[in-house]
Amino acid sequence: YAYDDAFSPVQPVGGPFLAWVACHNAGHFAAARQALEAGWHVVVEKPLALCADDARALAMLAESRDLLLAESLPWLHHSAVRDTLDEAPERLELRFTFPRLPADNYRHDPDLGGGALFDLGPYVASAALGLCGWPWRSVSVGAQCVGDDRAPSRLQATVTGAPRESDAPAPSVTAWMGWGDDLTYTNRLVAHATDG
Questions:
Q1: Which residue among 43, 78, 134, 166 is least enclosed by CB atoms within 10 Å?
Q2: Catalytically annotated residue among 28, 33, 41, 46
Q3: Which of 22-26, 62-66, 153-157 is predicted least confidently?
């Protein structure tokens, strides 16, 4: 399922009918909804949507039509991550950075879902959900965006979960992510086991 620059659907040819949504962040919800309504399975680049209500609406639509809906976060399944973690860690530290983006990149435009929270925040959430023993009883999130107020280029975040068993340690994820002139490509994950 493809979209041209005007965001109009291109008529599908043949199959299989799987839409891969990879437009700017603010367009993910509309593109995914349109594909689901057309009866297609959908994979969406992160973030799935820019608010929880839109994400829930997509999930309900996919479920009502017995269609696959997935957010693309393949880093969780990379062998460097999976082979390192024998069990869910108590604490994860993430650092994802990259150099300055071109001035016309949508990540600088808040109207297109730009900024570090939407672009990099899904890595923090996916680490908590995918690597730290989800489901938890509850979750607390703290995030601070640094840079331009409308489309910040840096994100510092902490996610802490309350495990289902009261005597289990509380898992947490801390992250520092962003882009800028002073940064290089960095992908770092440090896992701390429950025994220290």
A1: 166
A2: 46
A3: 153-157
